[in-house]
């Protein structure tokens, strides 16, 4: 039997290659379903971390406040766009419109200001809401939130009064707006207490917060105009 054995070759002692170790080039017959597919590129903002605050950045498109963009924490992915006019009695209504930056864009909310009333008319996804002053001698406004299921209140904070905080009925912070007073292009940033506030709840924070920021800006402009006229 030994005389009839085939001649020795090195191939008889090569290690066995299991299917997962065979490349597509050396085994063209291997199933393509077993090949590792590349992960799709992300098409949206990074998933929020529910345990940490979320910061939204508000940038002006130019030197005026007519058009602004709100980005996510990375400062590059747009979430909302803001369009507003002067808010005078001759301006079209609503005075402020906030839309989603996604395509196709949808109206998230609006704000309409009144010269002879302290109430601001808001809408959240076409549902009306009244943004009411909490008193003549206080710079605070409150509204009934459909998403949070309670009454929320924006109030001024900080030495200059340009910063704002949003609290619930238990005085717990929900969000905070920090103004960028010395920036040419940035209006400020909104700190949301945690990443679990999203969807329509986040929309309400943004719409009501932007309305409060615009109200304070109008108040400062009116005060400056009155001071200039009296001087």
Unreliable spans are 5-33
Q: What order do the strands of the largest sheet run in, or round the barrel if closed? A: 1-2-3-4-5-6-7-8-9-10-11-12
Query: What level of helicity do the residues show?
Result: 10-25%
Proportion of residues in β-strands: 25-35%
Rg over CA atoms: 29 Å
Please tell me what the overall shape is: globular
Element-level helix/strand string:
EEEEEEEEEEEEH
Structural class: alpha+beta
**Which quaternary structure do these chains form?**
single chain
SS field, number of helical segments = 1
* Number of E strands: 12
**Mean pLDDT rating:** 79
Main sheet specs: 12 strands, antiparallel, barrel
N-to-C span = 121 Å
Account of the protein in words:
The protein is an alpha+beta fold and 231 residues long. Helices cover 13% and strands 32% of the residues. It contains one helix and twelve strands. It has one helix at 200-230, and strands spanning 54-60, 67-71, 78-84, 96-100, 107-112, 120-124, 127-133, 140-145, 150-157, 163-167, 173-179, 186-192. It has a twelve-stranded antiparallel barrel. A hairpin with a 5-residue loop joins strand 9 (150-157) and strand 10. It is globular and about 45 Å long. The N and C termini lie far apart (121 Å). Mean pLDDT is 79; it is low at 5-33.
What order do the helices and strands come in, and which of them pair?
Blueprint (H helix, E strand, L loop, with lengths): L53 E7 L6 E5 L6 E7 L11 E5 L6 E6 L7 E5 L2 E7 L6 E6 L4 E8 L5 E5 L5 E7 L6 E7 L7 H31 L1
Antiparallel strand pairs: 1-2, 1-12, 2-3, 3-4, 4-5, 5-6, 6-7, 7-8, 8-9, 9-10, 10-11, 11-12
């Amino acid at each position: 039997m030994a005389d009839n054995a085939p001649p020795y070759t090195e191939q008889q002692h090569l290690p066995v290659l299991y299917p997962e170790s065979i490349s597509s080039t050396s085994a063209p017959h291997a199933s393509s379903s077993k090949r590792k597919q590349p992960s799709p590129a992300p098409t949206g903002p990074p998933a929020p971390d529910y345990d940490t605050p979320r910061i939204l950045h508000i940038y002006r498109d130019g030197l005026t406040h007519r058009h602004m963009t709100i980005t996510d924490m990375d400062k590059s992915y747009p979430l909302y766009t803001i369009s507003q006019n002067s808010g005078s009695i001759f301006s079209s209504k609503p005075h402020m419109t906030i839309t989603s930056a996604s395509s196709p864009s949808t109206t998230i909310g609006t704000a309409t200001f009144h010269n002879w009333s302290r109430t601001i008319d808001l809408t959240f996804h076409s549902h009306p809401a009244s943004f009411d002053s909490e008193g003549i001698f206080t710079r605070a406004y409150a509204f009934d939130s459909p998403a949070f299921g309670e009454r929320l209140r924006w109030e001024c904070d900080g030495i200059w009064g340009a910063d704002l905080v949003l609290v619930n009925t238990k005085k717990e912070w929900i969000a905070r707006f920090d103004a960028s007073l010395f920036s040419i292009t940035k209006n400020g940033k909104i700190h949301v207490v945690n990443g679990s506030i999203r969807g329509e709840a986040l929309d309400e924070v943004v719409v009501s917060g932007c309305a409060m920021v615009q109200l304070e800006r109008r108040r400062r402009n009116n005060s400056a105009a009155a001071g200039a006229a009296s001087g």
